[in-house]
């Protein structure tokens, strides 16, 4: 005989009542019915329920279709509410974002205004720069003209001194006779000069207060002036010209040179300095023009302005 277990006490069961609600086999006493009573049910066994199922159906009566429908709606509403709950946080975030966007928009508006002001200032600066560049161009043109005028003026001034000789190193005394000194120098260098050959002779102020004023001799003829300087240079090669050689006290050296303008004197000084740095052997003045030569075989360079110093390479 087949055996099973009771749905209530879980003991072995060979015969019992069958609950059509929970679909379990139960001992008669576990099902709450007598064996005789259960057998008298006949066809009603098809709808019989155990006491537990009956109690459950009594405490929770079946819902009417309307109530059941409302219950389903409530469940759906709760489910929808659960789904919509995160939207509350999203709404707060959107509100915060709107506030931030409004602040950002305001900041951008202020930045755009500042950029417009900045662009205006840039345009103003560019306009000023263009004006300055035009002024610089004009200044450059004016500077070129000024340089050219200074060169022309210096050339004219040097031309006016073409007949002049500058003598340095002669001691100065009261009641001195400059013609007599000049005559002694001419005799010593082998090129005597007379008063008829001289336009004037005088001492001129010197920028160097520690040195004696130089003597300027203006010859009537440029050729006589050039010959006088050439004779002095030739004589100076063997024996330097000094005050003692012309009967003056001391043994101070005497220098006989072209009477250069202040511009050409400064240029001569710079030329000597640059020539020493570039190992040039010769720097001299002839016909009031500055010359330089690196060696005996190299070409002669004539310097007229400071720009020409770049030629000393």
Automatic annotation (TrEMBL):
Pfam families: Baculo_FP_2nd. It comes from the Eukaryota. SUPFAM superfamilies: FYVE/PHD zinc finger. Residues 87-152 form a coiled coil. Residues 261-313 form the FP protein C-terminal domain. Keywords: Coiled coil. InterPro entries: FP_C, Znf_FYVE_PHD, Znf_RING/FYVE/PHD. This is FP protein C-terminal domain-containing protein. It comes from Spodoptera exigua.
